[in-house]
Write a structure and sequence with these properties.
Blueprint lengths: L2 H14 L11 E10 L10 E6 L5 E5 L5 E8 L7 E6 L2 E6 L11 E8 L2 E4 L4 H9 L5
Parallel strand pairs: 1-7
Antiparallel strand pairs: 1-4, 2-3, 2-5, 5-6, 7-8
């Protein structure tokens, strides 16, 4: 076969191929943040944390700073609203639910969870103010 024949065959093959469907899923950040404190209320620095998406088994890792603060950013799509998450800090485990409005793409998504001794305390109402304190004032 000549070079022109090969080129023509290649063009015909490309033109007759079935169109490829794009699989693109938009993800948004879902932030889990908080503080890890010992039983006396002192900050625990250098503690490793793991946030696990129960549906996929995928995990996100973080560690506390000198104030015991941690921030984990997970990638969740709109369809992940209500998804089960597991937060591990050493042997302590907390079950969380990704709670957000899937049509609201403006506000930050996430929750605040503190570990006080061996007790997890979810403080969703403090999420926004804690995020602003950690990252600074948003520029909107």
């Amino acid at each position: 076969m000549t070079r022109a024949g090969v080129l023509l065959s290649l063009v015909v093959l490309v033109m007759t191929a079935a169109p490829a469907g794009a699989e693109h899923e938009v993800y948004y950040r879902y932030v889990v943040l908080g503080f890890v404190k010992d039983a006396k209320g002192g900050a625990v620095s250098g503690r490793e944390l793991e946030l696990i998406r129960d549906k996929t088994g995928f995990s996100y890792l973080a560690a506390t700073d000198e104030k015991g603060f941690f921030l984990i950013i997970a990638r969740l799509g709109d369809e992940s609203a209500g998804e089960a998450l597991t937060l591990r800090v050493g042997p302590a485990v907390a079950r969380l639910t990704a709670t957000f409005d899937p049509v609201n793409h403006r506000d930050d998504r996430g929750t605040r969870v503190d570990l006080e001794g061996a007790q997890f305390v979810e403080r969703s109402a403090l999420f926004r103010s804690t995020l602003v304190d950690a990252l600074g004032t948003p520029s909107r």
